[in-house]
Amino acid sequence: MTATPIVELDATALSQAIHAREVSCRETMQAYLARWDAVNPALNALVNRRPPEVLLQEAAACDAELAAGRSRGWLHGIPQAIKDASAAAGLPTTYGCRPLADAVAARDSIMTARIRGAGAIIVGKTNVPEFGLGSHTFNELFGVTRNAWDPARTAGGSSGGACAALAARMLPVADGSDFMGSLRNPAGWHNLFGLRPSQGLVPFGPGSDVWISQLGTEGPLARSVRDLARLLATQSGHDPRVPLSWSDPQLAGLAERLPADAAPLRGVRIGWWGDLGGHLATEPGVLEACSAALARCAAAGAQVEARAHGFDAAALWETWLTWRQALTGARVAAVLALPGARAQIKPEALWEHAQGERLDFARFERAAQARTAFFHHLLRTFEAVDLIALPTAQVWPFPVETRWPAAIAGRAMDTYHRWMECTIYATLAGAPAISVPAGFDASGRWPVGLQLIAPPRADARLLACAAAYEHLIGDWLARRPAGA
């Protein structure tokens, strides 16, 4: 038995302990079952949990395989809950939507299959907002997920259940997905690392469309960059069913090659976009916290400068609305076809569907061209900087009773997701973006994240920079949520 309690180990350390036979897979599962019973009732992060006796049997089978000299992979025998927007065979894929409560998946998604293939034991699902819409994890099927740092506040979303479980030591590592910051916003609010990979690096599907719908992507969440890199290597790689997917050979073994100190930050050029010259409404303290985090980078030798973003932010928001309504509306439409579904679907989802129905091809084509122009603008920006920095959220975690912030610093929000606008730029460009811890509010209760964006397909370089930064924030990473 290790001196450190099992649930305190990150995924890499737990994997090493299991393979060294210092702890058994059954002991690991028992420790996590106890942890879930103690913590999950207050946070409601894990849903549709599989029966304990079944999980213990599967853990025992993993022990038997190790005893015979066989390992399935680095996640051998490690409990893993899949975000409830991705299919796991034998479990419902509900998207937090009541009409889909009994939609049991016949097979794994590509990402789930890869995680299972690496040896993980799938224990259940992590909670999401209905349809994954809005960065606040609540739905009529399972209820609200609470922030592990302050249960009176939102966990964010749509990977809110995953982040709350990870921060509260109910999982050693977690998966998520990101359309409008869903791997970045809740990670920032939980003092975690969350990576939205470059478009296509982690194949999204298989689904009914493998071309236009690839604006969203799945990716990793972790308490360390080492775990983040290791899980990304598992999730990523070309799949012929997803033609825009690709493989990055630099990810193989990257976790073992990450920087051992902050020295690689010397000379890294970071352009700080802040609030885009006042375009983004932000709560007091958010920008200041991110600036203080960037000051640590500067002290380590990075070249940090405030930089004008150089594009029409208002016009790009309209471009984003068009893309989002086109893709989200189609997903909602599929569920609306079910008997009685309309009465069970939240108004924000119905609004997205209604807006999507009014779209014509000419408007969508204009939005596609505007997205292309922004992509080219970003490529030119990356000729002058190595990374772009933004906050991961424009507000601090808000009360769980609030559906979404109606105003920020006196400025009214005109849609339910306008307060998440800072996350759209990496998405539209298909660029990798990582959320890294950036400190806490003045009371010390609520974490905040800093978003670092790298050029498309520079995921390995971004992870290396994040690992170097990790060496600067040991004081923040040493902090723990109450009860965790």
CATH superfamily: Amidase signature (AS) domain
Rounded Rg: 21 Å
CATH-defined architecture? Alpha-Beta Complex
Q: What characterizes the major β-sheet?
A: 8 strands, mixed
What's the helical proportion of residues?
Answer: 25-40%
Give the integer mean of the pLDDT values: 97
Note the run of SSEs as H and E: HHEHEHEHEHEEHHEHEHHHEEEHEEHH
What is the CA-CA span between the terminal residues? Answer: 21 Å
Give the overall shape, derived from the CA principal axes: globular
Q: Uncertain regions: pLDDT < 50 for 5+ in a row?
A: none
User: How many strands appear in the DSSP assignment?
Assistant: 13
Strands of the largest sheet, in order across it? 4-6-5-12-13-9-7-8
According to CATH, the fold-level topology is Amidase signature (AS) enzymes
Describe this structure in words.
- The chain is of the alpha+beta class.
- The protein has one domain (15-477): Amidase signature (AS) enzymes (Alpha-Beta Complex).
- It is built from 15 helices and 13 strands.
- The chain has helices spanning 11-19, 25-43, 52-67, 110-117, 160-167, 185-188, 225-235, 254-257, 286-299, 313-336, 347-357, 361-381, 424-429, 459-470, 474-477; strands at 46-47, 79-83, 121-126, 174-178, 193-196, 217-222, 269-272, 303-306, 387-391, 407-408, 411-412, 433-440, 447-453.
- The strands form three sheets. The protein has an eight-stranded mixed sheet with strand order 4-6-5-12-13-9-7-8, with helices on both faces. Strands 1-3-2 form a three-stranded mixed sheet. Strands 10-11 form a two-stranded antiparallel sheet.
- Strand 10 and strand 11 form a beta hairpin.
- Helix 7 runs antiparallel to helix 14 (459-470) and helix 10 packs across helix 11 (347-357).
- The two termini are 21 Å apart.
- The model has no long low-confidence stretch (mean pLDDT 97).
